[in-house]
Amino acid sequence: MATRPTSKARPEAADETPPRERILEAAFAAFMKSGYAEASTLEIATRARVSKRELYAEFGSKSGILRALIAATAARMQLPLATAEIHDRDDLAAALVRYGTTALGELTSPPVLAINRLAVAEAGRSSEMGGILEDTGREPNRKALIDLVTKAQAAGVLGPGEPGVIAGAFFSLLMGDLMYRLLLGVVPRPGPKEIKKRAQAATQLVLALHAADVSAAGSPRRS
Questions:
Q1: pTM above 0.70, yes or no
Q2: Rounded to the nearest 10 degrees, what angle do helices 89-107 and 163-175 cross at?
Q3: What does the DSSP 8-state code read for residue 213?
Q4: Residue 13 DSSP symbol
């Protein structure tokens, strides 16, 4: 007669959340409860049901966990830019709309807003969290958008200008004061239709402001 295997012999459930994901989820919960500065790696490890040794082996430090949380969002935002091929104005417009839609969707999500609120709240005591947000989140996305602008200029789709300024203009047109108002909690999170509408409007404006000089023959002409 078959006997039931003991818990010691039973293999780990196939659908159990991997330790890395458990640590990230536990860290977010701990940061929201205690604040980034006050949350301890012991608290995170306990919530995640892992040892501190496992936690350090996976992320190296508490700041490493925060970097991983932010990097995941940044990577999702950059995906539309990484695959973009720019040959003409339509290609660029499509890439900017895809990026704008993705970026707004990520940046206005409740977890991202919560992390940003926490960074602002802790800024008076320590700039560590804000620095990680800047280095791991904002800066990689800024560089990816600048690379897209540079590629579009090389293809003659955008006119001359500092790529960083053009990229910044697009992002400013895309966001406006939305993030500020969301952080204050005075407006609701925009829905998919509004997000796409904002991305399309920002794209149209930046293309109009920085259009390439096109000759009568229809080919881009550099000034």
A1: yes
A2: 50
A3: E
A4: P
